[in-house]
User: Fold Glutaredoxin domain-containing protein from Ziziphus jujuba var. spinosa.
Amino acid sequence: MHYQTESWGSYIPATTMTVGGDPLERIERLASESAVVIFSMSTCCMCHAIKRLFCGMGVNPTVHELDEDPIRGKDMEKALMRLLGNSSTAAVLPVVFIGGKLVGSMDRVMASHISGTLVPLLKDAGALWL
Assistant:
């Protein structure tokens, strides 16, 4: 597994997640371990854009690349789809948690950024100090 910590923060492949167990419980546990957590696919352009947004703001998100584990990663993606209330087959990633709370996918994060509510969320979670 490759870890790329220089540019995105902490990369954790899905293979480091415990075997078995409920994917929703795993998501909840992983989402609460860092101030900003992104569930991503390494080949997804929207995932890349959201990681760039946070890094450009000075935030070091923990990134879980679900395509690093094709078996458990798919289960995690399905669980994230259920969390978002998305029943379509459209791509659901990236999914962002700030302070252990679900913010949502790309559209919700960008809407928060544009409306000015993203920075206060990041400050409250301890991801930004200024």
